[in-house]
Amino acid sequence: MTSHQCSYIEINGAALYYELSGNPNGEPLVMLHGGLGSQHDLLPIHEYVAQDYRLISIDFRGHGKSLLGDLPLSYLQYQQDVQDVLNHLGVERYSIFGFSDGGIVGYRLAAQAPEQVTRLMTLGAHWRLEANDPSIGIFKGLTADFWAARFADDVADYHASNPKPNFPKLVDAVKAVWLDTTASGYPLEQVERIRCPTLIMRGDNDFLFSLDEAVSLKSKIAEAAFANIPMTAHAAHQESPELVGKILKQFLSQPQN
Asked: 215 to each of 41, 169, 170, 237, how far by Cα in Å?
């Protein structure tokens, strides 16, 4: 038995869009998408978790159907937005699946509120941005035109669904998030405060989140498991949803101490 509902909530000058789906009696599982994407991108793995979990899918501000508002974007702002949505819903304990930017927000949430996050699963999610990280050049060189050419369907969906679309403005705002090395950005050593069982995943051909960085992260988190998804790149959940979905399901079914 699954249900589905959607709504907006006004948070700090922006209307944020969220959807509730899956098992209404299940444990909450927060689904967080990547930068310049939307919750729609995570639909390929819903079928593996929807029977057992109450899925809470949130569009980050400016993304999907959420409005951008006037505040600058940051991982800290995303974190606060997610916490505000969960407070609005009365959700006190929850698990997280986060892809890319969503996973980075997941690290921050699990480190800041270890008593609330019961499990954390990330895919292709940095935990720091070293000065020599090859992704810096990629981020800096990114333009709205390049993204629109590479991900034409995603950008068309954004224009069709966002109440006030301005894609070039969103790209500039998100690039600033990706390049932010201040306290409002990547979690850095905060990840050592994560206490819940954590699953770190990456696509084997992910050129943004390297194997070395994933292994370094695993060593920082007390209860971390690691999965390298073969024959996939950054968006492994879209390239190989069955494999990623089954790993998620198996991880979620592990008994907790």
From this structure: 26, 35, 32, 20
